[in-house]
Amino acid sequence: MPIDPLQDLYVHELQDNYSANSQMVKVVGELCEQASDEQLRRMLDTSVTKIKEHNERIAELVRAEGASPDEEHCKGMEGLVKEARKHGLQESYGDPAVQDAAIIAQMQRMTHYGICGIGCAKAFAQALGKTDAVRELDRDLGDIYAGDDYLTRIAETRVNEEASA
Ligand SMILES: [Fe+2]
Fold first, then answer.
1. What is the C-alpha separation between 159 and 104, in angstroms, rounded?
2. pLDDT tens-place string over residues 72-94
3. 74 C-alpha vs ligand 1 centroid, how far in Å?
4. Which of 58, 60, 96, 107 could covalently link to 36 via disulfide, CB atoms 3.0 to 4.6 Å apart?
5. pTM of the predicted model over 0.90
6. Cα 88 to ligand 1 centroid, rounded to whole Å
7. Is residue 84 a contact partner of residue 27, using CB atoms and an 8 Å limit?
């Protein structure tokens, strides 16, 4: 049976996610130190742990395909990390609530990129009939969606209001 070309795309997608997570985790730690809202700080701190866990699982999935996890460099996340540093860390807004709003905005950009990347990897795994991988990627995707919803809630119920006060 010929090798499914989708197989290569699946491994490549996982490697890209691995690179994206490795780059993202550092800046999330920095955003956490800069955040003022207690719930936001806790969320970002939990995210650091979760991203590391996700990446350990992604590395395992890549190795299970006979490849090495760190063979890709995700330029998309490289750009998002630069944006996060510029707008979330380096720019000073003179108001902790506005700073938090900026941090949430940057975190959600990176999160949405992650949803896209893991979502695609899951869809490829599904098409390839890799049911264990689908289950694992789906669990990670659930964590990321939940984190994103939580950020929206913090922003809409508190931070944005305080920022506009
Ligand atoms: Fe990428």
1. 9
2. 999 999 999 999 999 999 998 99
3. 4
4. 96
5. yes
6. 21
7. yes
